[in-house]
Design a protein that fits this description.
4pyrrole_Mease_sub2; globular; Cobalt-precorrin-4 Transmethylase, domain 1; disordered N terminus; 8 helices; Methyltransferase, Cobalt-precorrin-4 Transmethylase, Domain 2; alpha/beta; binds S-adenosyl-L-homocysteine
Length: about 290
């Protein structure tokens, strides 16, 4: 844990806009901000997140994946700590304590804070302590993985639905959310936290009727400069392909009938851009009209 001096750099000295968080009428005095740090590339942090970090009095980041964003833009003297070795109680105590001493306290989380981020269990003790809480969204790894592979999670007449899910590990799945049931929709599945459970995923997709040649994209450390690995496989080969690529942690699994569409010869195009489609900003071109 890195403990520095707790003196906050005055906002004016940082050239920060003084109305950053008051534009919508909310004061940032003693506020804990849950900030999505994005998938790993520090440049995928939002401008709002970066501006908050630049004037933070204290930052608690979630493990090595987001440390770079915290340290790159934090002001000198910022109280920065890694929550890697902390319990839930220690995390909440840290945030409450720092919120009593600093105007802007940040809990920096990977991707978007609303996905598998233990957000509510941290917010409740802060609510009980009377500490204002705000959330800044982040780029989820599901989207960073799609971007890495130049994939679209939705395609007309192929899949218009995306399910963000995981398979049961130590956290059980609620009734009706087992992968077999979800996969029966045959839509896009973004599977988090499950790279060590590829044999379970293969078994469940087979049980849901997915063919052996169903395309699957696995992206390890999506967006991480120099560390990203992309594996293109099928239901039949995904486990061996990931083993061969030595991928065992921090990966997004995208199982979708849309994967690989860049190479398709026939594609149903979006109606929005179709010449025969009228919408608010454009009139349809009649067949035969010049
Ligand atoms: N809130 C995060 C998810 C946290 S759960 C988000 O929105 O992305 C942690 C899981 O997210 C990992 O097990 C992995 O499945 C996925 N993940 C996080 N960062 C990733 C990255 N850079 N590349 C691939 N998967 C990632």
């Amino acid at each position: 844990m890195t403990e520095c001096s707790s003196s906050e750099t005055p906002r004016s000295a940082l050239g920060e806009p003084s109305n950053l968080s008051t534009a919508d009428g909310v004061t940032d005095a003693g506020t804990v901000w849950f900030v999505g740090a994005g998938p790993g590339d520090p440049e995928l942090l939002t401008v709002k997140g970066r501006d908050l970090i630049a004037r933070a009095g204290a930052i608690l980041f979630a493990g090595s994946l987001v440390s770079e964003a915290a340290t790159r833009w934090a002001p000198g003297g910022c109280d920065i700590a890694d929550s890697k070795g902390m319990t839930h109680e220690e995390i909440c105590t840290w945030l409450i304590d720092r919120a009593r001493r600093h105007q802007t306290v940040i809990r920096l989380q990977t991707g978007d804070p609303s996905l598998y981020g233990a957000l509510i269990e941290m917010v409740q003790p802060l609510d009980a302590a009377g500490i204002p809480v705000r959330v800044v969204p982040g780029v989820s790894s599901a989207f960073a993985a799609a971007a890495a592979g130049v994939e679209s999670l939705t395609l007309p007449e192929v899949s218009q639905t995306v399910i963000l899910t995981r398979v049961a590990g130590r956290t059980p799945m609620p009734e009706g959310e087992d992968l077999v049931s979800l996969a029966r929709h045959h839509c896009t599945l973004c599977i988090f936290l499950s790279i060590t459970l590829l044999s379970t995923i293969q078994r469940d997709l087979r049980e849901a009727g997915w063919p052996e040649d169903s395309p699957i994209l696995v992206v390890h450390k999506a967006s991480w400069p120099g560390e990203e690995k992309i594996v293109r496989a099928t239901l039949a080969t995904v486990r061996d392909a990931c083993r061969a690529a030595k991928i065992v942690t921090q990966s997004m699994i995208i199982a979708s009938p849309t994967v690989g569409a860049r190479q398709w010869e026939t594609l149903v195009r979006s109606r929005l851009y179709d010449a025969s489609f009228t919408h608010r900003f454009r009139r349809a071109v009649k067949p035969g009209a010049s």
